[in-house]
Amino acid sequence: MTFRLLVNETRRVIADAVSSMGCQVPDFSISEPPKEFGDLSCNIAFQLAKQLRRRPFEIATQIINIHLKPYLEAHPESLILSVEPHQAGYINFRVNYQRLASNTLREALQNPRYGYPDVGKGLHTIIEHTSVNPNKALHVGHMRNAILGDTLHRIMKATNHHVTVLNYVDDSGLQVADIVVALKFAGFAAKPPDGVKFDQYCGELYVKINDIYESNPLLAEKRKLVLQNIEEGKSELAAFASEITRRILEEQLITCWRMKVRYDLLNFESQIVVSQMWARSFELLKKSGLAVFETEGKNRGCWVIKAHEGGEDDKVLVRSDGTATYMAKDIPYAAWKLGLVEDPFSYFRFTVQWDGSTLWATTLDKKADDSIQGNPNFNSGEQVITIIDSRQARLQKIISWVLSQLTGGSHNQNQNQNHRYYHLGYEAVTLSSETAKSLGMDIGDKQFMHMSGRKGLFVNADYIMDNLRSKAHEEVKTRNPSWPDEHVQRTAEEIAISAIRYNMVRQDLDKIITFDIKESLSLEGDTGPYLQYAYARSQRILEKSANPAVYNPSFGMEEQFAALISEYEVTLVKEIARLDMVVEEAAKSLSPKSVARYAYSLATVFNLFYEKVPVLKESDSDIMRARLALVKAFGLTLRNAMALIGVTPLEKM
């Protein structure tokens, strides 16, 4: 029972009032106005002005005097305390704060899942994210993808979506062939130097071998040979490529697990190619009329997806020489996710992850050890979300449109709920000049540095995490000199994780992130450690209270809660009451940043309360009990919000 009840009651009484006036109820909004005008504001009078041919203020006054005031007199239990018109025409509501505080604090203190509404109703939601080519270590740009995907998974799971998380492994492309050429034909050692992870070593080889191709055409020819062997999948070279891919993938997963990212299934591109899933998808496209064979023009002899409304050009699926384009590989995988093509895979247990869950992987070997056949939990999603950077937006738009036609929906995903395929795009991550220099990179007079794996202009995610942990370790040790080093290390690691995860989630998806190590670790401002510090503050208050049982509320604490009347207490209660509405909106709009920004707002409001309102020094025992309950409710609420963005609450820092 939270702020949602106030909003729902307000919406209901407004709709009833309009109906009783003999009017059709139009769409109207309820929003939070500047606090001097109240707690909620409704624009219904503006929506009725044209229909009734009267001024909004007159309509608002009529609704209030004839309908709303009598309702409040007849319902003393209402969450609405009072209502008044604004000269502009808005209807402003003030909350019955005593009732809101009682409902909110009791719910927050007694419900472990406080703030997690049942939005999904068990809807099977497939999320694909990370999907880094298995030829290098993750760099800081890849971290944004993995963290966004994992945060969205947490939000959807908390709101009762049945979530399956996929990680696509492109093990059949040129990038894998490059590593095989480097190790088999260019004379590079198979074992990395001491202290260097295998994925990091292979990333360095990837850069070097692409430089060597320019001066050694024979190696470039070997690259074609290796790629052919990989695609056929039967030779010793193909087996070697598979072994290399797995070793790199395992190292990549270690990095992701370190950031508390998890998956349900690994999909391998090589198996999609061999499985004939493209052939089945191609037939489906031809049968539906979406794939058209061109007999003239620039695409003569090609199979194309014709330009559609909002599209730019015809898109080639199969070239005139019979080779499939990149899009032709993506369509069958997307169709498999939606269950539009037969599932050709068996599945085996790949490994156990950091959280104890099983990570599965696809296989075409039906006799593989520990394998199962046909698992609907891995595909046939009722909605599919693919997280890829914005450079892939045009391709994803076409795939989305094709799938919407196959499922009978609209290509406008915002207007038709039958459209089930969504691309969540995001912009790149750059490094600030100060961070680049601190990591030993010379970028001249530039303010930030873009990254490129092929050019070797990148910073490994592990390297960033190690530096964050090192700097956090110094700070924690300084603040807590008596702590055992093992505890300092664990705390520093959690602070490092919170710094990177929060920094990647809080930003607008359409904005380039300029990552700065020093800024992300600050205990002040919009950072992950700031949230952890606010939580730790609340726990110190509770720890210092003489009797922890004193803040466990019973149903008889309404009078004590009514004593929480200062603006700082009222604001904190209202902020606590908003969590479930924020989480619902984040799930519906696929907006992880909403939860991060709410958590920051909640922590900021609490810190102001902490500075302005005495708790343990309060002389009135009833008021102290109520404030302790408020502090505990804040901690539990922030803890639940932090869990959704993958930030671990710390008792002490």
Fold and architecture overview:
- Among the domains are: 3-95, Gyrase A, domain 2 (2-Layer Sandwich); 528-645, Isoleucyl-tRNA Synthetase, Domain 1.
- The chain is 50% helix and 12% strand.
- The chain contains 23 helices and 18 strands.
- The radius of gyration is 29 Å and the shape is globular.
- The chain starts with a helix and ends in an 8-residue tail after the last helix.
Quick synopsis:
With 653 residues, the protein is an alpha/beta fold.
Structure classification: alpha/beta
Number of helices: 23
* Helix proportion range: 40-55%
What would you call the shape? globular
**Going by CATH, what is the homologous superfamily of the domain at 528-645?**
Isoleucyl-tRNA Synthetase, Domain 1
Integer-rounded radius of gyration: 29 Å
Could you name the CATH topology of the domain at 528-645? Isoleucyl-tRNA Synthetase, Domain 1
Under the CATH scheme, the architecture of the domain at 528-645 is Orthogonal Bundle
Question: Major beta sheet, specifics?
Answer: 8 strands, mixed
The share of residues in extended strands comes to 5-15%
* Mean of pLDDT: 89
Q: What is the strand arrangement across the widest sheet?
A: 13-11-12-7-6-5-14-15
CATH hierarchy class name of the domain at 528-645:
Mainly Alpha
Low-confidence stretches: 410-418
Q: Find the count of extended strands (DSSP E, 2+ residues).
A: 18
| Distance N to C terminus | 33 Å
Task: For this entry, give a set of tags.
Isoleucyl-tRNA Synthetase, Domain 1, Gyrase A, domain 2, 12% strand, globular, alpha/beta, 8-stranded mixed beta sheet, 18 strands, 653 residues
